Amino acid sequence: MYDERIFNPGMNYIWNRIINAIFIHQFNSFRQKSGKIIRKEWVNLESISYPIDTNDFITTYHIDTWYNGKFRNGRKHFFNKTVNLKRKILQVAVFEHIPAVTKQWRKMHHHDNQNSGNEALGIEIEIIKIIAEKINFRSLFYRLPNINIDKWDESNENGNYSGLLGETMEKNANFLIGDFHYTLRHHRILELSYPYNTECLTFITPESLTQNSWMLLIIPFKLYTWIAVILLFLVAAYILNRFSLFYQKQIMPFKRNTFIKGADIQISNVAITILKRTENLQKQNNINEQLKSLQLFTDVKNSMLYTYGMLLQVSLPRLPKAWALRLFIGWWWLYSILITVAYRASMTASLANPVAKNLHIMKECVILMPISIGMNRNSPLKPQVDQLVRNVVESGLVEKWLSDVMEWSKIAEIRYESDAPKALVDLYKLYGALIALGIGYLLGFISLIAENLYWKYVVMKNPAYDKYQMDTYYATNKTNI
User: Fold this and answer.
1) Where are the transmembrane segments (predicted)?
2) Considering only CA atoms, which of 386, 351, 341 is closest in space to residue 182?
3) How far is CA 109 from each of CA 106, 113, 116, 225, 480, rounded to the nearest angstrom?
4) What is the per-residue pLDDT across 427-453, written as a single tens digit (0 to 9) for each?
5) Dihedrals φ, ψ of 121, to 5°?
């Protein structure tokens, strides 16, 4: 119903989003004719033009009149107000961010959306110009005073925003351009158009300028941290070995005896006997599988090897059947993940120290991030803007503009490559990898020599050793296997 209170300036934000609203304005008139009072009633249907760009009280315009049981004009009451904005001015907040917006945009004439030259203004500037032409509005581009500091946003302790997001929270801008990433956080604050491009987000890593690259293996952790990690590794290997031996000596004989007693039961029925034998065979296979899985940790050397492998996130060849071991292994896996993540993060931080020159850009894309144009939350222009952005993308204009915008950077890069020295990796910077490989080869070589010496001076000196009857030796030395 028509009410003066809903047309005050504080309601402008609502009526700029609920644009398909019709207000019923009732009228009554009285006149006297032939001594009789004649009452005349009619209803006007009124609406508000979009967009509302004034801080004064809102004025409505007439659509149709209901009188004597019918509409007087009979026109269409609800129509799409976003198709033609009748040359009204829309605010566009700008953040200079290549390739969305370049510094050349300042040379353009704001009143007619035409640039003074053929310079590349940026992809989003060109998209806004096409949208303005199709929807028939005038775009007023403006730049915030502290945009170079605040950029997209700089939220404070009170949760308030500045920069481009602050403009949309203050309801000042209709469009926000400046290379907005299509993220969930942005989507909660403002409306994002259909993505017109995807950008490759990657890492910039500095060149290692120091000659102590071999220390990168130990730099992530301090001395007491390394001591704690090594001690916990030894403790975990010992516990896994003790658990396996206890399960093998105390639990498995009990299961085996239970299986043998069950196998001695004689049942006269042939079918039941066959079923019982099948069940016993399955139980025997399960016991054998459990014994095989326990062999991973029953030997001290194997227990240390597999525990160390889990610390390096190497999967086990099989998971033990014993639930006590499974629970301990599960928690050891969780510990290993946390330790390796902390180690990698600390190593990355040590590599990412800022340097004055020779930065490297990783060629692989970590994330392909969609890029969109920002609008006010619940903006009624979003359907029209999405369709127009799709048309621009499908026509290939975005690729053309991107090529124009990045042309100067390609020329500058060619000049830089011709003059600047190349950042090459020399032998000093590979010390870390070579030392790690050398330590591994050295330990393996020492282990091979120790195994050969043990075989020559311990195994071959055993009285039961016979190279032609090795089964006899292994049968009498089961505890050494």
Assistant:
1) 214-240, 323-343, 430-450
2) 386
3) 8, 6, 7, 63, 90
4) 666 777 778 788 888 988 898 899 889
5) -90, -20
